[in-house]
From TrEMBL:
It comes from the Eukaryota. InterPro entries: PsdUridine_synth_cat_dom_sf, PsdUridine_synth_RluA-like_CS, PsdUridine_synth_RsuA/RluA, RluA_PseudoU_synthase. The lineage of its organism: Eukaryota, Viridiplantae, Streptophyta, Embryophyta, Tracheophyta. This is RNA pseudouridine synthase 5. SUPFAM superfamilies: Pseudouridine synthase.
Length: 382
């Protein structure tokens, strides 16, 4: 694949950083609905509790209505038994809240007129979701774009947007597109890679057909016997309290996924192995699931254990609720919890606009370096 391109553009870690400290609380959120003909005649409380029961219990929705957080056609309504008519415009105003702590500085690894690649720190969510609606990479990208292009007419219309995701606890390279064309082509790269795996091509065929290659570093529990292993375990979902769309796990009936794992260093004394993982598909939490599936879960992973399954299938839900009436997070682990060591170390891709070969590298945390790499990175005071 790579030999067909004329130019290779290497990138080294930049000293450029950007980021704005998070405000104490966010701005809250506004959710809009239009009553469909099929929902005409429902009461206000019936509408919200039937459609958004994962957001809040019945008491929570009653609290939100009585707290004047819901309007119908622009007018505050506090009676939960108010009957709805087709076409009515509903707005629910979620109160501002203090989001959990998260880092905010992003290191620029590569940037041109079409792409920007940043080094995402562990603990920072990529896109809004759950309790993290403002404290995300996307927000920092938007703020940064506004700062750079602020004019009398406001910010530029097109902001850089991530074209793939990294788990909140995963650090390393996050690739973002600055243009719609770049975004669509990069999205196609990722989709094509996953589709190739789904079509059951051989590993060499997958490598030849891909236009993007992602390499990770991980520290796993246990000493891996084989020097290399290819994991083809499908990944599917199961019902899991606190995860509305279901939890991704190793599942025979799931979608195809492929990870190539290579041992970099074994540590028998501490019962761990440093590995390099190249993923040829992009299923959620794929590396965490695949490594745990073969009995080598990531050290410190609060969720996945051997077999690619969660530690607990029936998390306990807190009986208390947030000030806004919504559920508190489960008391047992959920996918976004951090604590493990997984780093998106390198991406090699065909530039989606100029067709040049780009190699981007994110500096390795010390714990994910080999002994030789740590020695090489030590300062020389002689």
């Amino acid at each position: 694949m790579w030999m067909r391109r004329k130019t290779e553009v290497g990138s080294q870690a930049s000293e450029a950083y950007f980021g704005v400290a998070w405000p104490e609380v966010n701005d809250g959120l506004t959710y809009h609905d239009i009553v469909r003909p099929t929902d005409s005649g429902l009461t206000l409380i019936e509408f919200y509790f039937s459609k958004y029961k994962n957001s809040a219990p019945l008491q929570g929705w009653l609290q939100r209505i009585q707290n004047k957080q819901i309007t119908i056609d622009g007018k505050v309504v506090t009676l939960p038994d108010t009957e709805l008519r087709a076409g009515a415009k509903l707005v629910y105003h979620r109160l501002p809240w203090r989001e959990p702590d998260a880092p905010y500085l992003l290191q620029v690894l590569f940037e041109d007129d079409y792409l920007i690649a940043v080094n995402k720190p562990s603990g920072l969510q990529v896109l809004p979701g759950g309790l993290y609606q403002q404290r995300t990479v996307l927000t920092q990208l938007q703020w940064h774009a506004c700062k750079l292009t602020a004019t009398s007419s406001g910010c530029q219309k097109t902001h850089p947007v991530p074209v793939h995701r990294l788990g909140r606890g995963t650090s390393g390279i996050l690739l973002c597109a600055k243009t719609k064309l770049g975004k669509s082509r990069l999205a196609a790269y990722f989709a094509e890679g996953t589709a190739v795996v789904g079509d059951k091509h051989t590993n060499s065929e997958c490598n030849t057909m891909r236009k993007i290659c992602k390499i990770y570093r991980a520290l796993v529990s246990g000493v891996m016997d084989m020097d290399e292993v290819v994991i083809k375990q499908p990944i599917g979902t199961i019902k899991y309290s606190g995860v509305a769309k279901g939890l991704y796990v190793a599942s025979p009936s799931g979608k195809p996924a492929l990870s190539s794992v290579r041992v970099l260093e074994r540590d028998s004394e501490n019962n761990c192995t440093l590995v390099q993982v190249e993923i040829q598909s992009g299923r959620p939490h794929q590396i965490r699931i695949h490594l745990s599936f073969i009995g080598l879960p990531l050290i410190g992973d609060p969720l996945y254990v051997s077999g690619g399954q969660p530690k607990c299938f029936h998390p306990v839900m807190s009986e208390s609720f947030e000030k806004d009436g919504g559920y508190r997070r489960p008391e047992n682990p959920v996918p976004g919890d951090s604590g493990y060591n997984l780093h998106a170390h390198q991406i090699v891709l065909i530039h989606p606009i100029i067709n040049e070969l780009i190699k981007i590298t994110a500096p390795l945390p010390a714990i994910l370096q080999t002994r030789e790499e740590r020695r090489a990175n030590q300062p020389n005071y002689s």
